[in-house]
Amino acid sequence: MREIVTLQIGQCGNQIGNNFWSKICGEHNLDQCGYQISNNDLEDRKDVFFYQADDGKFIPRSILVDLEPRVINSLQKNFYNEENIFVSGEGCGAGNNWAYGYYSGKSLKDEVMDALQREVESCDLLESFFMTHSVAGGTGSGFGSLLLEEIKNTFPKKSLNSFSIFPNNDEISDVVVQPYNSVLSLQRLFLHCDSVVVMNNGSLSKIALDSLRIKTPNFDQINYLVSTVMSATTNTLRFPTYMFSDFNSILSAVIPYNTLKFLIPSYSPFVNKEVKIVRKLTVDEIIRRIYSEKTKMASFAQSKTHGHISVLNIFNNVEDVSEVEKGIL
């Protein structure tokens, strides 16, 4: 089995990770504590992201790290392996400062790497590492950068992939050093990651407004969008098909050259949980939407002549494959 170990770094990374686990628990017929809800056997691979304890509980292959305890303390800790939860003893956070997160994180580095080594050794065939974090804050950017260096040095043959939240470039942030945090993180992402899924807060807020009809989205609603994309990205790994049953095959399809590793996700349709009636979309409508600028999760400057170097479309629950072929052509 090809397993994936996930690292949740900082406030943003832990909130996104928690939403991701909640979502895939529902998809794998698990309750929010990790126990099987019923005996209906799904043709799934839970052990890509989970391992099973002696009492039958499925525990995430995840490591949670933060330099301040507020967010981690709010999570349901009995769902995770508590040996894999790390909070700085100082408990004061990184103050939205990359340098403080990078250098103060060294006090936790050895413990985190030991836990990561334990998770790796428990895998039958480790394939990849996932990291969720923000590049604008202190812990996600600074300590995240430190861990990227350490992981790539320790496991150079394993792919390292991040789901990175970038700041909104259309607004002036209250955090003066946010651009510096982003640039310093960007260098480590470029050097050490095999893929970087780029999302920014501005685009996510617009999607929440346009697709979910939420005027002032909160963090939980934004994180729902990110976790939905993470779930869809890994769907073929957890529910294997004849193609893309491992993550490296997905990377080879979308990354033609190793420096072209920054990927922009697009997803449709997002469904507001409070809306009871949803119109069923045709495959052709979904294809049109995912190529629309409104559904892309990162904004960027573009010209009328811009194009796509590579594209990978993953469709779930499509009954007739010929509809996909017609829609693309």
From TrEMBL:
GO CC terms in record: gamma-tubulin complex; microtubule
Record SUPFAM superfamilies: Tubulin C-terminal domain-like, Tubulin nucleotide-binding domain-like
One of the GO biological process terms: microtubule nucleation
InterPro entries tied to this protein: Beta-tubulin_BS (IPR013838), Epsilon_tubulin (IPR004057), Gamma_tubulin (IPR002454), Tub_FtsZ_C (IPR008280), Tubulin (IPR000217), Tubulin/FtsZ_2-layer-sand-dom (IPR018316), Tubulin/FtsZ_GTPase_sf (IPR036525), Tubulin_CS (IPR017975)
Record's keyword annotation contains Cytoplasm: yes
An MF annotation (GO) of this entry: GTP binding
Keyword set, alphabetical order: Cytoplasm, Cytoskeleton, GTP-binding, Microtubule, Nucleotide-binding
Classification via Gene3D superfamilies: Tubulin/FtsZ, GTPase domain
Annotated compartments: Cytoplasm, Cytoskeleton, Microtubule organizing center
A Pfam family it matches: Tubulin
Domain Tubulin/FtsZ GTPase residues, every copy: 46-241
UniProt keyword annotation of GTP-binding present: yes
Superkingdom, natural source: Eukaryota
Family: Belongs to the tubulin family.
Subunit structure: Dimer of alpha and beta chains. A typical microtubule is a hollow water-filled tube with an outer diameter of 25 nm and an inner diameter of 15 nM. Alpha-beta heterodimers associate head-to-tail to form protofilaments running lengthwise along the microtubule wall with the beta-tubulin subunit facing the microtubule plus end conferring a structural polarity. Microtubules usually have 13 protofilaments but different protofilament numbers can be found in some organisms and specialized cells.
Protein name, as recorded: Tubulin gamma chain
Organism: Anncaliia algerae PRA339
Organism lineage string: Eukaryota, Fungi, Fungi incertae sedis, Microsporidia, Tubulinosematoidea
